[in-house]
Design brief:
The structure holds two protein chains of two kinds. Chain A is mainly alpha-helical. Helix content of chain A is about 75%, strand content about 5%. Chain A has a single domain, classed as ABC transporter involved in vitamin B12 uptake, BtuC (Orthogonal Bundle). The radius of gyration of chain A is 19 Å and the shape is globular. The N and C termini of chain B lie close together (about 10 Å). Chain B is mainly alpha-helical. Classes of the chains: A mainly alpha, B mainly alpha. The interface between A and B is large, with 44 and 44 residues.
Chain lengths: ~300, ~350
């Protein structure tokens, strides 16, 4: 492999990894607070892309405004999902909310197939993103630096939110001990709603950027990136935000490198993600940065 | 009169059990002869779902191992059974990408032997994968087993000399379109698993589910018991997969995605964790409901108004029904309770005494 090809793969790996990281954050935030694997997250990811598609189709607004609107609306949708499907089950056994999440995921996918149609739709990609040029001998489209830079900014913003604001403090308090924080006059329901809103907006951003990279959208497009992002979250230690970022980057990079270094194994690409996951879990049963839990007797 | 051995009632219960079995056998015999092939297919599918649900209930409901690997073990069972039952001539005609590997290319077994082999292969696979991952806890175990199932699927996609790759296998002998086969296997599964969970082993499994550390202190070898439950559950998952392959007659790797596992998980939870009765009945309800909703997709005519046909609406309504069940029956429809003659007889006694105005 020449240096140019290697650099090219690094660029691709960073780009894919940052998308995984962005979606993984949504999984990890919800898990950190509710101990719930939000299987509907991958469908929220899909809805984000469709949201942009339809807003763009109907209103023809400036692109950045369309993007913001789509992300905000998807965030509102995430809050609605939490209100309808998860909040009534907060005191129920944990498996009930998990099944509820699976049910919501089925519901969104099937509704999507009915409303949007099963046929893939061409995603509107502004000229700017697809423009490409050569840097040295590396081929670069604008999209390949926009994705990591923009995801990086979003993650920075999220980190500020979680570690520098009062809302973030409340989130961390709830994730530590929900009952005690509610006694300390933290508005648990409100904070959980915000968490879902933020996570869903990030998923929407991820879905839109995914669609810019692969400009075909269909109602089941969230499944594969969703499950990969979830693997990334578990890799990094589910519940930990820096863990989700590291896990996402690691997974994206490893996947691209596997295909680049061993093209004969490219059919095994999807299995590889799981293999990495299992190997890391066997070495560290709670992921890279996961909280260790001690057995009490 | 709980706990008092009553020989008359014991005889009555035995009689009722055999009577019930005879009625079921008569129903199967009647159904095989008289039901349309469409209705038979639904009932067969319900039976297969029941096998899968009861086996998952053993792993998750009784032992508390959150395992999402069912689809993988089903795939192993389905492929094993298909490769062992397909006639050699058919094998030659479907393996276009690469010739079939040796032992499978020359042998054809009778269905019973093939189904047992399918279960055994799935069980062996469970033993090999369970050995490392059963150390993991809770959701981490779930995602690791899901990972194994997906790895099995991707591997099946990439070894054409055994699985025929993405093309899958066609023309699998359809012995499972017979109610005796599917519901017979349900009977065996329910018998084996209910005997297991009501034995000393079963008590140990429950102890592991409730508190691993306490169980270990009481002398329960948790690794051993977890492995036993996992392997036996996966054995029946393999059997269910084998029957499903034979019922549908074509299999390919896409059939065994994690959505399949989720469907079974939904049946198990909706039926009630730790209730075999719940798993079996919910499988039937689930399968029949899915088919019964078909008419809502057709075009409707309300007076002059004509609603066009909406393909896929069935699944939308179905997932809504599912959500409602989960939101309102949080412990599942049967919530860990089991059917027993004692329960029925007690209920009849209570009714009779109430009618006579006597307080029991």
């Amino acid at each position: 492999m020449t240096w140019a090809v290697f650099a090219q793969n690094i660029v691709n790996g960073i780009s894919l990894g940052s998308l995984y990281a962005l979606v993984a954050i949504g999984y990890t935030m919800v898990y950190g607070i509710l101990r719930l694997i939000n299987f509907a997250h991958s469908d929220v990811f899909m809805l984000g892309a469709y949201m942009l598609f339809y807003i763009d189709f109907m209103f023809r607004l400036p692109w950045w405004l369309t993007f913001v609107l789509a992300a905000v609306l998807t965030g509102v949708l995430g809050i609605t999902i939490e209100r309808v499907a998860y909040r009534p089950l907060r005191q129920a056994p944990r498996i009930s909310s998990l099944i509820s999440a699976i049910g919501i995921s089925f519901f969104i996918q099937n509704l999507g197939l009915v409303v949007f149609g099963g046929r893939p739709k061409p995603f509107p990609v502004p000229q700017f993103f697809s423009q490409s040029y050569m840097v040295g001998s590396v081929y670069m489209a604008n999209i390949s630096w926009v994705v990591p830079v923009f995801s990086g900014l979003l993650m920075l913003g999220l980190t500020m939110l979680v570690y520098r604001t009062k809302v973030g403090l409340a989130m961390r308090a709830i994730s530590h001990d929900m009952d005690t924080s509610s006694l300390m006059s933290v508005n648990v329901d409100g904070i959980i709603a915000i968490t879902f809103g933020v996570g869903s907006a990030l998923a929407a951003a991820g879905g839109i950027m995914w669609a810019l990279k692969y400009p075909q959208i269909n109602p089941l497009m969230g499944t594969v990136p969703g499950i990969k992002a979830f693997i990334a979250a578990v890799l990094g230690g589910i519940g930990s935000i820096p863990g989700a970022m590291i896990g996402g980057m690691l997974l994206g990079m490893l996947e691209i490198m596997l295909v680049a270094l061993m093209p004969t194994l490219s059919g095994f690409r999807d299995a590889f993600a799981y293999l990495v996951l299992i190997v890391i879990l066997l070495a560290r049963p709670t992921g890279l940065l996961g909280r260790e839990f001690r057995e009490k007797v | 009169m709980l706990g008092v051995y009553n020989p008359a009632r014991a005889r009555l219960k035995l009689l009722l059990t055999f009577g019930g079995l005879a009625v079921l056998a008569a129903a199967i015999w009647w159904g095989n002869a008289n039901l349309s092939s469409y209705n038979l297919r639904i009932l067969n599918l319900a039976g297969i779902n029941a096998i899968l649900a009861v086996s998952m209930n053993l792993i998750f409901g009784f032992t508390g191992l959150f395992s999402l690997g069912h689809a993988g073990f089903m795939a192993v069972g389905a492929y094993t059974c298909a490769l062992l039952t397909l006639p050699v001539a058919t094998k030659d005609s479907i393996f276009l990408l690469a010739p079939l590997a040796w032992p499978f290319s020359v042998i054809t077994l009778p269905p019973i032997a093939a189904v047992v082999c399918a279960g055994a292969t799935a069980g062996l696979m469970a033993y090999l994968t369970g050995f490392p991952v059963l150390r993991l806890r809770g959701d981490y175990l779930g995602i690791a087993t899901l990972g194994f199932a997906e790895i099995i699927r991707v591997v099946a996609n990439n070894i054409p000399s055994i699985t025929n790759g993405a093309l899958g296998l066609k023309g699998i002998p359809s012995f499972a379109s017979n109610l005796w086969w599917t519901w017979g296997c349900v009977g065996i599964t329910v018998f084996v698993i209910s005997r297991l969970v009501n034995s000393v082993y079963g008590r140990s499994l429950l102890a592991v589910r409730e508190d691993e550390v306490a169980a270990e202190i009481m002398g329960v070898n948790r690794t051993y018991h977890k492995t036993v439950a996992y392997v036996i559950g996966s054995f029946f998952a393999g059997v269910g997969g084998a029957l499903m392959g034979s019922l549908v007659t074509t299999i390919d790797p896409k059939t065994f995605g994690f959505t399949l596992t989720f469907n079974i998980l939904i049946i198990v939870v909706a039926g009630g964790l730790g209730s075999i009765t719940g798993s079996v009945l919910t499988s039937v309800i689930y399968t029949v409901l899915l088919e019964a909703l078909r008419p809502i997709e057709a075009s409707w005519r309300i007076g002059p108004l004509r609603v066009p046909e909406i393909p896929g609406l069935r699944m939308v309504v179905f997932s809504l029904v599912l959500l409602v069940i989960i939101l309102f029956y949080q412990r599942g429809l049967f919530g860990g309770r089991e059917f027993s003659w004692d329960r029925v007889l007690d209920w009849i006694d209570r009714r009779r005494s109430r009618k006579q105005g006597v307080r029991a």
